[in-house]
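hi! just following up on the protien thing from before. the input was this:
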Amino acid sequence: MKKSPFAVATAVVAPAATPNFAKDLYVANAARTTDGDLVTIQSAIDRNLKEYLTTKGPNEHGYAISTIEWSEKPGQTKVTISKDGQFATLAFNQALMATAPGPANPPPVGALPIPGQPAVPPPAYVPPKPPNAAGIPTPPVHTRGMIQRNPAPAQRPNADSGVDQ
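and the predicted 3d structure came back as:
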């Protein structure tokens, strides 16, 4: 049996796969600054998981930026990160990019008109009136009396008035 060309096949046991630390992570934000590049990564499953990374070194949780492939197109930048000797390349979440307003998708202003019906503009803003103080009536409006523009000059005594000097 030892020399038989027909040997019993034995399965090679693969080492236990380590869980991919970045399977649910995506790039939420990437920026270039004079101090270095900044990247925010976020989890698609756990919304509370946000990691802020810089090119200066690993953060307090062990995440570090390995490389950044910058792109001029929005959402096309790719970031390679590392943690505990494992590497993963992350991109922006394309599902979120498709729903986010941008130059191609301007945010809606008011309600969209229904085809076949005229668009009704939103009502004009009317500021609220200040409330009246509790039980105190509003005083009447004070108006000033008419003031003469050029009053008649005061009469001066003249010599013909019969007054002796």
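The CA atoms of residues 28 and 96 lie 9 Å apart.
The first strand starts at residue 25 and ends at 33.
cheers
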